[in-house]
Amino acid sequence: MANSRFEYVRSFERENYLLPDTWIVIRVDGRGFHRFSDRYNFEKPNDLRALTLMNESAKVVMRDITDVILAYGDSDEYSFVLRKQCQLFERRESKLISTFVSTFTAAYNQLWSVHMGPDAPLDVGHMPTFDSRAVVYPSDKILRDYLSWRQADCHINNLYNTTFWALVLKGNQTRTAAALRLKDTFSKDKNEILFSEFGINYNNEPEIFKKGTILLRVTKDVTLKNPQDLSERQLQREEKKLKKAEIQELHIDLIGDDFWNERPWILNN
Ligand code: ATP
Ligand code: ATP
Ligand code: MG
Ligand code: MG
Q: Where GTP is bound, by residue (predicted)?
């Protein structure tokens, strides 16, 4: 196509190419889900249907984008880890984050009624939307620390929320009073409140609430060669296998070494 005299405006565009040979993590997070979850009467502190909806939406993203090797999610957020050699969109940041967040958001909206039931239709004034960012991590250790940070955050928030909602729903305290009661308390204090006042042993809470969700692609006989060393046809075949691969859902600890020692292929790609 011939260039028009307007073509020069393209020179105003700027592109951020994410550093090569580093782990790219894209995290999507629900916008204003504190209020959103109130608006649609999420069960507190944890609505299992809403967590399932998040997990199923993340699986849609993983099936669509085969560069994702692992995803971790809890509450209204999901982190997608892309393989180090990923060349999707030449690693252009804006293309990556916008594609991930729109695919995730589309899936979340499409699957909403499947998981939340037909009695809670979405209204246009209160649509679920998400933001997203990309960060690159240069080493395996830092990638592991990133995921550990998110899982630790899940635990801290969940212990707080479990105690807060026990005080409100079972202890008939106002939200303000419950928040005041928990101000400056340590984990052991919250465990104690749960146990002595409500007979709840936090350790027995469902693992999905305490640990969040890890998604992994279960790949059989996928070649371990570098994509650069494969022919176009081989690449297409690999891509097909990855898209069809089963996605495994886990609610286990990823902070300790066991998770990684048992699955060396994750960090080795
Ligand atoms: P922001 O737009 O800055 O992300 P936010 O209101 O979404 O603001 P977050 O820190 O992301 O704040 O917190 C998400 C909130 O959504 C949680 O604190 C909780 O109140 C609610 N929430 C998310 N998932 C669930 C769930 N499965 N069950 C109950 N509540 C949930
Ligand atoms: P990329 O993912 O790189 O954006 P693309 O296939 O979306 O690739 P675009 O340059 O965005 O490429 O072009 C969008 C294409 O979508 C158009 O070339 C046209 O074929 C099709 N298209 C978009 N809107 C319409 C429409 N309203 N009616 C018919 N075709 C359309
Ligand atoms: Mg949020
Ligand atoms: Mg959040």
A: 29-34, 75-76
